[in-house]
Amino acid sequence: MAARRYPGDSLERLQAEMTRILSVFDGVCSELGLTYFVDSGTVLGAARHGGFIPWDDDVDVAMPVDDYRRFLREAPAVLPKGLSLHTWDNTENYPMLWAKLWKDDTLFVDRPCREAGLRQGIFIDVFPYVPLDADPAAARRQRRRMLAWQRVSYLKYIAHPNNVPNGAARAACAVAHQVARFVPKGLIGCRFEDAWACKTPGDTWINPCYAQAAPMPGEYLLPPRPMEFDGLTVMGPHDPVAYLERKYGDWQALPPEDQRFTHAPEELDFGA
Fold first, then answer.
1. What count of other Cβ atoms lies within 10 Å of the Cβ of residue 268?
2. Which of 8, 67, 84, 207 lies 20 to 30 Å from 141 when distance is taken between CA atoms?
3. Nearest one of 104, 107, 101, 17 to 63, comparing CA atoms
4. Residues with Cβ within 8 Å of residue 14, at least 6 apart in sequence
């Protein structure tokens, strides 16, 4: 799907709101002594554009799993009024298995959220990163379990996921939804997090919410280093060039216009 145009200056306003949320997240992590780094397209934007990819409409941050768990426990007590932390176990109709930090009294409702019944606000995504087992066979089993529970979580709420390749797959998703919608949300979340564990942690890390993506050597990620992002100094991967080459290949080349994807919502409200 080509990038959907945002009306007027709404994309620029959205990016500015997300930058403000990112600034608060950075401050909370500093206050609590937590490690994080910007992730995925946010790293790409910082390295290639000095901030947002011009057509991008989300911000991704990631944390080593122990820091992520501390963030979930401790951040709500220090977040400023008007921002709230949302996860699968504190928010109704929440199909994701990672956290979101969002601005209250705003709306960013895309098609999957509308189908799930989730009235999410303008947000940034907060992902865990976990080490894979040093044994390749065990690591493959970890990834299969992560991916399976992530899919069950989506199919519990969404019968028509994005990016399904053909009619047969779409029909299969609709059938699977009729089963998955009866699986308790708590069971899904706990089994997903159980899949993170490994007996012999290696030095290769993965975002368990996207377990199909290429794992990252720990030396690419940690310790984080500062990067500039839209006037902010944030923490990025330790070796952003190696990270980007592994994730995107020729990351400096702009994609064709028909591959400039967005998450353009069906409902966008900046609030008061």
1. 19
2. 67
3. 101
4. 6, 57, 108, 122, 268, 270
Alpha-carbon span 127 to 103, nearest angstrom: 18
Cα(11)–Cα(206) distance, rounded to whole angstroms? Answer: 30
Closest CA to 118 of 156, 63, 74: 156
Split at pLDDT 50, 70, 90, the class of 4 is: low
**pLDDT tier, 250 (very low <50, low <70, confident <90, very high otherwise):** very high
Q: How far is CA 168 from the centre of its chain?
A: 28
* Rounded Cα distance, 202 and 98, in Å: 22
Would you give the DSSP letter of residue 133? Answer: E
Are the CB atoms for 125 and 59 separated by under 8 Å? yes
CA dist 203 → 47, 140, 209 (Å): 24, 15, 18
Percentage of the residues of the chain whose pLDDT score is greater than 90: 89
Structural tokens at position 81: 């009024």
Indicate the burial class of 151 (C-beta count within 10 angstroms; 0-12, 13-18, 19 or more): middle
Nearest to 99, CA basis, from 112, 111, 84: 84
- Would you say how long the chain is, in residues? 272
Residue 46, phi then psi, degrees to nearest 5: -60, -45
**How far is the C-alpha of 121 from the C-alpha of 143, rounded, in Å?**
30
Q: Which of 265, 193, 269 is nearest to 6 (CA)?
A: 265
In one-letter notation, the amino acid at residue 238 is H
Query: Rounded to two decimals, what is the model's pTM?
Result: 0.95
Helices 240-248 + 41-49 axis angle, to 10:
120
Residue 153 CB-half CA count within 13 A = 28
What is the pairing mode between strands 99-103 and 123-133? antiparallel
